[in-house]
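Reading is simple: the token line describes the chain's fold. The lines below illustrate.

. . .
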Amino acid sequence: MAAVKTDELVEYLHNFLRDAHIPDSSHALNGLQVANSGTVRKLAAAVDASEQTIEEAVRRGCDFLLVHHGLFWDGNQPVTGARYRKLKRLLSTETALYSAHIPLDLHPEVGNNAVLASAIGLQVRGTFGSYKGVDLGVWGDLEIRRESLAARLDEVLGGPVRMIAGGPEIVHRIGVVTGAAASMLGEAVDLGLDAFITGEGSHHTYFEAQERGINLYYGGHYATETWGVKALAAHLEAKFAIPWEFIDLPTGM
């Protein structure tokens, strides 16, 4: 089985994802969150660094876990309870953990938004969805009936998508920002988009979409954010000949 030094893999990820140059929450802590003894032979990719995810990575013999949502979203907390159990399991099994949040959302090649847009057949023309000076999402052209777009998303995302039909029956310009990005609805409207695809949003966006004349699609936070970690893991396999597996633990949210 092929192997790569952990430091070499981390340095490549750091440069490829531009971790140090992409703004994010202070709790995201993008990059290597837990080290191992120095060698990687098999990758696991997952959306969340949950206890269940870690246990499954260990069970499958993976020594490097790549996630979108890392370990420290609850901030500077004591190493007790679930945090203690997760860290203990990672350290005792020599399993490294690398987290990539916004750097993975917006990456033009393996990012959640770019890959999902490609999966639905969107011809990307630009970016939008400003966050701390950078654009998270993509927008582009695809002529399709709004109901047909919902059906396509159902198939691509593997579950029912919630469509709020506030815009034209035939859409031409569509925006994608995965996760919890409904707050960017106004920017999508200002850009002249006919449809906006994201994961989840607040109750008031139902009426906001109708009143502002845009079709809004909620595909689920989890379902819209499986794309980046899988694309990145496949990229690393091609680069380093390291096998990988996706750990699918859908939340339904």
